[in-house]
Amino acid sequence: MWNKLKTYTDAALDLSIPALFEDAGRAQDFSVCAADMLFDYSKTSLTDDSRACLVNMLGESGFEARRKAMFSGEHINETEGRAVLHTALRAAAGAEIFEDGENVVPGVRETLDRMRAFADALRDGSFQGQGGAITDVVNIGIGGSDLGPAMACLALKPYHDGPRTHFVSNVDGAHIHDILQGLNPETTLILVASKTFTTIETMTNAQTARDWMALSVSDPGAQFAALSSNLTSTAGWGIPAERVFGFEDWVGGRYSLWGPIGLTIMIAMGADKFEEFLSGARAMDDHFRTAAPLDNMPVMLALTGIWHNQGLGYGTRAVLPYDQRLSRLPAYLQQLEMESNGKSVRMDGSDTPVHTGPVVWGEPGTNGQHAFYQLIHQGTRVIPCEFLLAVEGHEADLKHQHELLVANCLAQSEALMLGRSLDVARELMAAKGLDGDELERQARHRVFPGNRPSTTLLYPKLTPHMLGQIIALYEHRVFVEGVMLGINSYDQWGVELGKQLAVALQPIVSGEMPADDKDGSTRQLVDFIRGN
Ligand SMILES: O=P(O)(O)OC[C@H]1O[C@](O)(CO)[C@@H](O)[C@@H]1O
């Protein structure tokens, strides 16, 4: 399958992206409009033929059957024997989605109703802390139990009208110290967010929070709630069932913000707005399962990614939101994409013949422009850039700033594509009065190679509904890329080894055990740490 693509990628290396726009219809032909969004991938080297090849490869990968299998609750996470049904968390009330013969939607809606009642009680003050109404909520979780809700809470700040929300993830005591420092234990609620309820960072931080609270209130446990699928452990931790919000093992951690793990989002902006967030994701689900490939935004986002990474060998992908409130989106996508598609063995146990997921990274624009864009424009590596931009900001009184933001975003994709030729650079230097060798030397530094690919996702405004659409778009992109690669996007065995070794190293670090059986480097590090 991958050999077929090579014919087109070889040819693409000589293509001029600007020249492709001699076709007046290119911008429109190489874009997808759906659900009020525009995804423009025309500033890439994809052509009708290479795109058709990718669409054929998609068909050959068994994509349609796999998509159906996912939405209908089959156990497509084969290495863990689980269904992949995060889409059920945002299904409409009354929908029917079966897993092992049981319709899971009533259970999902029941949990959402319980979340709503709890969030309402916190927001209207009927749930009281030991010093009055809850003013602050701290979500203690890591990975998927942190990145999603933390990203979404920040993204939807204009909609916050509930208690303040905070996130603690790192086992580094500095994190919880700095967050708790400013809070009143009598009016703070702790949400322990952990699918497994065994993650050492989260359980350690939860204990620290309980100790902190016990210094000030008589019943610290009364201000704790749990978001988990391990109901035995939450009970063992003394959190009463009415404050435990559970979910099933068919929700992967990095896909879990649509249910109980999203409780912080619901508390911050209210259950109705949370429903709008879910409805956005649902709209993207409906689009993804019904639209033909060329009109299907997640599919085309994925095929563009495959073209750049597996096709042209560009190993990283920059995600560049021109939207300050999406500043945690790159970190969130790092887990979503790299934990999902960072594999090297296919479903059947064979090695993958091509690279799998790219390195995903990024920062919001315009900040990134003043940091790493230099390398993107003039460095030796080609880095496909994915711009995201809202047509309208929330700050009506700062419209001129939004216009500047928009202009910057468009300018970057234009500069990446068009570049600046040596002739133009020479003219610039001549206009500065240079000539001869010095003109030539200085001009060369001012050349931009151009022909650098980017895509742009435009959306009207970052509302709860729109954020739901955007996140679901990326979730489905990961799915499509995973299917084409033939890998399981829903396990994460690669995180296990380090966790096990950390447990074994802790008594060595603390000096309870010798480091004798460790390698020379680890022994040296331990000696240095102990010696200092
Ligand atoms: O929600 P839990 O079970 O604490 O897990 C947290 C995170 O840890 C991981 O298992 C990786 O270590 C992620 O997949 C997950 O999101």
Automatic annotation (TrEMBL):
First-tier enzyme category under EC: isomerase
UniProt GO cellular component terms: cytosol
Coarse class of the protein's main subcellular location: cytoplasm
Keywords (A to Z) from UniProt: Cytoplasm, Gluconeogenesis, Glycolysis, Isomerase
Entry superkingdom: Bacteria
Gene Ontology molecular function, alphabetical: carbohydrate derivative binding; glucose-6-phosphate isomerase activity; monosaccharide binding
GO biological process, one term: glucose 6-phosphate metabolic process
Enzyme Commission identifier(s): 5.3.1.9
Localization in the cell: Cytoplasm
CDD domains: SIS_PGI_1, SIS_PGI_2
TM segment ranges: none
Catalytic activity from the UniProt record: alpha-D-glucose 6-phosphate = beta-D-fructose 6-phosphate
Family: Belongs to the GPI family.
PANTHER family to which the protein is assigned, alphabetical: GLUCOSE-6-PHOSPHATE ISOMERASE
Entry function: Catalyzes the reversible isomerization of glucose-6-phosphate to fructose-6-phosphate.
Name of the protein described by the UniProt record: Glucose-6-phosphate isomerase
Organism encoding this protein: Halocynthiibacter styelae
